[in-house]
Write a structure and sequence with these properties.
11 strands, two-stranded parallel ribbon, mainly alpha, binds glutamic acid
Length: 478
Amino acid sequence: MPQEIRVRIAPSPSGNLHIGTARTALFNYLFAKKHHGKFILRIEDTDMERSDNEYIKNIFDSLKALGLAWDEGPDVGGEYGPYSQSERFDIYPKYAQILIEKGYAYECFCTPEELDAERIFSQEKKIAHVYSGKCKNLTENEKEELRKQGIKPAIRFAVEAKNLIFDDLVKGELKFDTSLIGDFVIMKSNGSPTYNFAVVVDDILMKISHILRGEDHISNTPKQILIYEALGANIPEFGHLGMILAPDRSKLSKRHGATGVSEFVEKGYLIDALVNFVALLGWSPSDGVEIKTVDEIAQDFRIREVSSSNSIFEYDKLNWMNAQYIKKLSTEELKQKLLPFLGQYDLSELSENKFTRMVEVTREPLVILSDITDAVSYFFGESVEIEPEVQSEVLDKDVSQVVLKEVQELAKNWNFDDEDALHHTLEELRTSLKERSIKPKETMWAIRAAVTGRVKGADICAVLAILGKEKVLKRLNG
Ligand code: GLU
């Protein structure tokens, strides 16, 4: 390993932080943590048309929410800044010039029409298309002439045909025939660098030692290695992570569910669960215990053991894991986390104690935090919405009418401040109604249905105590 481990995540702000980029960020962060290195954030916003400040903010916020603090970046600065590519525009032409002077790059005056014609020719001949290299040998006079015609040149890298082999940290040995690449553009005619060029210049200047990124970048890597070689720079180690696919093995997209980190958070996934789950997309704990903190994962993380194949994003597994993390929260912690999902209710209807009790008795089935919204709806408001089946299947039954008539009178004298007392009271009620051939569960169904509008829910004594006498009587008489 080189002296200083420096890794980076280099998102392009053309959308909210995708869960796949979050995984790449996490693996870089884990690698840096494991090797006491630095984790750097660079925003690749050279493509101004596709970049958006709103997305930059989302990237910052999402990475922060995930707890992936960066040591250097656009906001925190660092020795090798600026860390936004758009602020580095004056750097790239210098390096392109060096490559031209060393004979590794040349000006290309081909117009889009000429390039299209070349492409169509290859298509018709059914041969793999590579740029013909026709501008490579232009004389100074010819170039001058073209310049006079107002044609602004792009700069192309002159690819030397050879077998390029590198040892990928994840995929193992990878081989490329560079003759299939063709001379590629490093600076566009408008003066802006292409991704492959800017990324190498930045990674060299930022002293990046290891590049861990998605395997969708594998085809870029030989081009980038050629540029490193031409600039006489140290070549970092590369590790290409398999892709994250949806359960149907297609590309993970909105139609499968949430894909942006912020969307998962809005839906009520806990950050710790999300990070833990994302770490398992390609990495397996050596002791087989899947629920782990980031620090524990970092201790155990070995990049060479990361799976080289694609990972399936199992929403069911994420849900399971989220439910486990919810169970681990104290009621106080959970109350705080649930607040954003209770905005539609008037929480002042409940005392602090009753609010706590409501969370205690409704938390068990929660899979995601937003499940609470529906789970507690019947605790709020004077009246309650009765589900149609509950009306027809329970409340309209004669037996329920008998139970409720009885309870309407008795409940006036019940002690709603004491759940234990309510427990005894209901016990007595069931026994006395049983003597009139009413089954205990019929008694309970009728009460629950009238008071909550549902047939299932939290412990009924707790529900009655939280609602209090006034609301319960209203609902029983409703
Ligand atoms: N901006 C590139 C992306 O978002 C970064 C690729 C790289 O890590 O080199 O995919």
